[in-house]
Design goal:
- By secondary structure, the chain is of the alpha+beta class.
- Strands 1-2-3-5-4 form a 5-stranded mixed β-sheet, covered by helices on one side.
- A hairpin with a 3-residue loop joins strand 2 and strand 3.
- The radius of gyration is 36 Å and the shape is elongated.
Length: 383
């Protein structure tokens, strides 16, 4: 919350306390039987409302004690209940509905005991009971509405983030597809042109003939095209994640998800393809937990072994083993990444409830199929 918003909230709280206090004080002043001792009680009960955001329970206790003492001493009308009503409403809004209802009952008991009796006094007590019930109900309704607004805002932010991640993933997949197509078609064709031009120039020199300038131009142009194509493919194959799994966990915590991170083994630098795959697996696992697991506890574990990296994302959410989810784009993308590295992936609901993602990524060079460096070596061999 910014300083401007905090200042605006304090001013609103002060205005509430001032309006309530003014109403009760004016009503007490119009009653000639109001003793001077009761005015400080009214001021204390009303002024406490200015601090209801910081300490709703303390405000409720102070307002109820001062308001009850006021009605026991002065026997005022129903309007004297305004400070306690406001305190009960704010307490219920903060989640203390039982305490608010108890405070209302205490004030009503004091008001009923000091009344003159008769039908009019009973009607006033019943009216006040209805007011207190409304204060509790409206406080709970306000609390639920605020929670709904926060949840809606969180869902909108999560949907926006998911769309951005999906767009980035699709863009990366499209870059890799273009790189493969260029490598499989254009690279081989240029390599053949360069090879044949080189053979023709070699044979011409061997026979003592002058090499045609056009042939030399073809050989030089094909070599330059190969170098430019290598650089282009290197750019297309670059898919570096922005951050680390630990940063993903911090972002998830900031978004309200309960996440724990555990790292076992010797944490060290890994091949870029393995680091990218681990990052995307943790990212997708946290996204799925935030969207589908409900208010769950999520555990992320990275196990650095001698020959493989194990990535686990487990939650204790609402997934049911009897109804396994159908694989979506995220799970399919994870499986493709792990398979490309020669690893294994298991995604399924847990027997004790919740969902589990477990990936085993080999660290050996033989497991790095389809990496950018291998593509570069392929180009060098064909060149």
């Amino acid at each position: 919350m910014s300083e401007r918003e905090a200042l605006r909230g304090r001013l609103a709280d002060g205005a509430l306390a001032a309006v309530v206090g003014a109403l009760v004080l004016v009503t007490a002043a119009l009653d000639p039987d109001t003793p001077p001792l009761d005015y400080p009680l009214i001021v204390v009960a009303s002024a406490a409302l200015a601090c209801y955001r910081q300490a709703p329970r303390a405000v409720l206790v102070v307002a109820t004690a001062a308001g009850t003492a006021y009605v026991l001493h002065a026997h005022p009308g129903p309007l004297a209940a305004l400070p306690v009503l406001a305190a009960v409403h704010t307490a219920a809004r903060a989640g203390h509905r039982a305490l608010g209802a108890g405070a209302g009952a205490v004030f009503l008991a004091g008001y009923a005991l000091t009344g003159p009796g008769g039908q009019e006094s009973t009607e006033r007590a019943g009216l006040l009971a209805g007011w207190f019930l409304c204060a509790v109900v409206t406080g709970l309704a306000d609390r639920n509405w605020q929670a709904y607004l926060r949840q809606t805002e969180q869902r909108a932010l999560e949907a926006e983030r998911t769309r951005e991640e999906a767009a980035l993933r699709r863009a990366g997949e499209e870059r890799l597809r273009i790189a493969r197509e260029l490598h499989d078609s254009l690279t081989h064709s240029i390599s053949i042109v360069k090879l044949q031009a080189g053979v023709a120039a070699h044979l011409a020199r061997k026979r003592g003939e002058e090499v045609p300038p056009a042939l030399l131009a073809i050989q030089e142009a094909s070599g330059e095209a190969m170098r430019e194509l290598r650089a282009t493919l290197q750019v297309l194959r670059t898919d570096e994640p922005v951050g680390t799994p630990a940063l993903l966990v911090e972002r998830a915590r900031a978004a309200g998800l309960a996440v724990d991170l555990a790292v076992t083994g010797i944490e060290r630098a890994l091949p870029p393809t393995v680091e990218r795959a681990a990052y995307r697996i943790v990212q997708e696992g946290l996204t799925n937990a935030a969207r589908h697991a409900g208010p769950a506890q999520v555990r992320v574990r990275l196990d650095y072994g001698d020959t493989e990296l194990t990535v686990r994302v487990d939650d204790d959410g609402t997934a049911d083993p009897a109804r396994p989810p159908s694989p979506g784009t995220g799970l399919t993308g994870m499986r493709e990444r792990v398979t490309a590295l020669g690893g294994t992936l298991r995604t399924a609901p847990r027997a004790e409830g919740g969902f589990s993602v477990r990936a085993r990524l080999p660290l050996a060079a033989s497991g790095l199929r389809g990496s950018g460096r291998e593509g570069k070596r392929d180009l060098e061999r064909t060149g």
